[in-house]
Design goal:
Helix content: 25-40%
Distance between the termini: 27 Å
Number of strands: 14
Shape: globular
Number of helices: 13
Order of helices and strands: HHEHHHHHEEHEEEHEEEHEHEEEHEH
Structural class: alpha+beta
Length: about 400
């Protein structure tokens, strides 16, 4: 999930929608699952950390463990160290960037633990900012990793990992070995254990035809640099999982493409029925009407395209569907026409008409979902059986 907030914001700014000129859509909540507060990733590509931790915070609420604010910096810093190591080991064939995946969050929890917010410097504070701002960090860390990974020397410096860790510590701070939380002393590992999350019960799901259904495969995207596997479902069953999860009180982390025109600043994500052109070049009508031979017809703006498995696959194969952004889906709502949307928690702060929340149509989710991370019990039993879960 590599889109930087500024790029996404620019794309949104360029998006025109009839609703922007009128009143905002009115939504009525159908089902809403408790979540923690909306955060702001600001000028960083760390949506995967915010959405991944937001998902686990929602899971803690669902499990009755309480309301927690977990530390994104702890996850990001550990992940960047690991990703740099993988990039160097593959001579740069694994890309290094500030993007990541939901699995990076799960991996960090399992292998390094977790800490609450406040145990490391607040995002941006060491750089004199109030939030994450990678304007200076990115050029430095990217250049450092590339210099090591692409080095033409026969041996690489033995100190490179320490030097790189120092660069990150200068921005994110040092990892706490122990910390106090509500009167108790913890390490990152003991705090994770105290949370009691069933970390082995979370699975990634996707839907593509270039691998067999009901098997696992490594999703071929750059930010899946840990090569984690996702279960492959037919599209209709992936959508059934999303519906079933919300209907039964489960949220899920949602990785999706947000570069489409239908993902707009009006706070909705839809797949408008496409314009189509009837080629009339050389026809009698074109000759007499003086047109250029292209009759343009536009569907009603409320209409959406019908998404098929083939359409979804074509978008992925043609790089039209890209791994852009990680978010959290936590409910369903209906607009004034009765059409249902999924409710999405974003990580851009108090942004847009709905103050950090937006509404994604079901066709949009069917078309542009890269993968979801969800508790296995949110999957309908008959589908879970097919997956061997």
């Amino acid at each position: 999930m590599k889109k930087i907030f500024i790029a996404a914001l620019a794309a949104l700014t360029l998006t025109a929608n009839a609703q922007d000129k009128g009143q905002e859509k009115q939504f009525t909540v159908v089902k809403e699952i408790p979540i923690t507060s909306i955060k702001d990733q600001h000028r960083s590509g760390t949506c995967w950390s915010y959405s991944g931790l937001g998902f686990f915070e929602a899971e803690l609420l669902r499990l009755g463990k309480g309301n927690f604010d977990l530390c994104e910096s702890f996850v990001v810093e550990h992940t960047y160290i690991d990703r740099a190591d993988r990039a160097v080991r593959t001579h740069g064939d694994v890309s290094y960037s500030n993007g990541g995946s939901f699995y990076d969050v799960l991996y960090c929890l399992k292998h390094y633990g977790i800490t609450p917010e406040g145990t490391m410097p607040f995002p941006g504070s060491l750089y004199g900012d109030s939030l994450f701002n990678f304007t200076e960090l990115d050029p430095i860390q990217n250049a450092f990793v590339e210099a090591i990974a692409k080095s033409k020397n026969k041996k690489i410096p033995l100190t490179w990992k320490r030097d790189f860790a120092n660069i990150l510590a200068g921005y994110f701070g040092e990892f706490p070995k122990t910390f106090e939380y509500e009167g108790q002393t913890y390490t990152p590992e003991t705090f994770r254990d105290a949370l009691g999350l069933p970390l082995d019960d979370y699975v990634s799901l996707t839907s593509y035809t270039h691998h067999p259904f009901y098997t696992k495969f490594i999703l071929e995207i750059q930010d899946n640099w840990r090569w984690s596997e996702s279960y492959n479902l037919p599209l209709d069953e992936l959508m059934k999982v999303m519906e079933n999860a919300i209907d039964n009180g489960y949220t899920f982390a949602w990785g999706a493409d947000v570069s489409e025109k239908g993902f707009s600043r009006n706070g909705t994500a839809t797949v408008p029925a496409k314009e189509y052109k009837n080629d009339m070049t050389g026809s009698d009508a074109a000759r007499w009407t003086g047109t250029n031979g292209k009759e343009v017809k536009v569907a009603d703006s409320e209409d959406e395209a019908v998404i098929t498995q083939e359409m979804r696959q074509r978008g992925y194969d043609n790089w039209e569907t890209t791994d852009d952004h990680g978010m959290l889906i936590y409910g369903k709502a209906k607009d004034e026409t009765g059409k249902e949307f999924f409710m999405v928690k974003n990580s851009w702060g108090d942004y847009g008409k709905y103050h950090g929340v937006f509404y994604a149509s079901k066709p949009y989710c069917a078309y542009k979902t890269m993968n979801i991370l969800v508790h296995k019990n949110a999957i309908p039993k008959q589908i879970r059986k097919k997956l061997g879960l």
